Amino acid sequence: MQQTCCGQPAWNSGDAATARSLLLKFLSDFEHFEAIVAPSGSCVGMVVKHYADVAKQDTDLSARVALLSTKVYELTDFLYTVLKVQPGQFSGFSGGDSQSFTYHDCCSGLRELGIATQPRSLISDNTPHVIREMPDSRACCGFGGTFSLKYGDISASICDEKCEGIASTKAGCVVMGDLGCMLNIEGRLRHQGDQTTKVLHVAQVLAGEM
Q: Which of 95, 126, 130, 167 is deepest in the core (most CB within 10 A)?
């Protein structure tokens, strides 16, 4: 298998032909599996919510996409909703000292997929770590894919507010479930001189890396 991009950057940029090509590649790689799990809400959102738009002029392709969309899950949603992970179920999720963290709700995961309770519950039920909610954790970090490239100054200003919210919690770590948000927030924190706040994916926390 030679999996590649889901096509979201192309679709958001108006390049429908490339997005369709990557959709076909995704189908070829994954449609024969019972479940497809991804660690980034924006990728899952693209497949589940937007592939239908990419394929809408092709009846056969639309049918394949409709079936595919029922099998694609964001990681924490799969663990929490499908596998129904119970508190302490996986021994690898426990151990270590209790530390404080704050959680950033990534836009695609939250607004397209309803991801909010799942990561918080998984962490609280399977690790000793304690959450300190930041002000307006649901606010965008300013990344937005190509938005951060087209409107760099606005994106940076939005992310500055997010970084202020993170700092106000005095938590040593900010956790999230989207790789784009991770890159954006960590980059801005380091640019501001914060070299100590950890920026981790929820999977890293569950694996004991905090």
A: 126
